[in-house]
Amino acid sequence: MDARLRAAVKATRQRLEMQQRDLAKAIGVSRQTLSLIEAGETVPSTQIALALARELQCRVEDLFSLPSDGHAMEAELVSEADRSLSRPRKTRVSLGWVRERWVARLLETDEAWALGTPADGIASLLKEKGRIKARVCPLRDLESLRRNLLVAGCDPALGLLGRHLEERFHGPRLHWIEKASRPALEELALGRVHMAGMHLPGEGSVGENAAAVRERFGAEPMVLVTLACWEQGFVSRPGQRYKSAADVERKGARVIAREAGAGAQELLESLFRKARRSFKNVVPVAVAHGHRAVAQMVAMGVGDVGVATRSAAASFGLHFEPLAEARFDLVFPATLASDGRVQALLDCLSNTRFRRDLGGMTGYRTARTGEAFTGAPA
User: Which pTM does this prediction carry?
Assistant: First the structure.
């Protein structure tokens, strides 16, 4: 076999618990021929490669690929971490082809999505003239890497969507970057991701989300597609209930806040404004990044109350006091609407199996899943 070509036929067959003789019969070759292909001693014809992909339920490029041969490519490092890099080092990264250039994000963080994500490449980080540069040796073929979708947002359902997308279409791979609503929108505006997920206060209406998109992107055509609607509310330990801003203030509760730009934080502050109370009088004991992080801090006793989803509260056995319904929308430029990766994602959103799975998550409603808007609805 060409020394530049790598085969994963045997490993894929064994993963599917398929016998070599059965696979050979299915693709119309002798067992000896298949053995040579698996051993890397012969190059299969296009017809046989396609037959192998069909029987092994994957793509041809999943079975045969070209290694990087040590050739590195330039990528723009967009992760916030490591800005104080003092010496060159190598690290795992995810990659995305966005606005005609490669962007790389560090995977060496303590966040669950990063720890459980197979790396797209190993990057050598160098600091030149105050900027961090990344030269990346890819671990997957470039065609597969170009199919990656980078999506920023705070909804854990993005992880579920990514798994369904990969299973249904054998890709594209969705890389979920956990960001609050407005920071996610900023990542999109800066060309660091393909899509942003957001939920801003609006009683389940797309209006607030669309208004924020118009404010940031002006006349640029953008599309909003609903992933799901879910409840937000006060989360607290059993026996400690908070129903209003007045409750929080009167009881002197220790508040877990969210980062600036988070929809949950804007909801919390709006509650105080509507109650004609100043949120400035509340000094948060901690700032959490994500709904589950809020619930975890409350469960651990770091604080008494915070705003998070019903799903996050249920995960930690907390009391949940509903405040408002949030509509989580995915936002992307209209120019990407015909992109194959986006089309696959939209198809996944309309898939009955995905919607039933998503609807099975505590507090999630899928009646509007897949609804698309180019602005505020009439």
Answer: 0.76
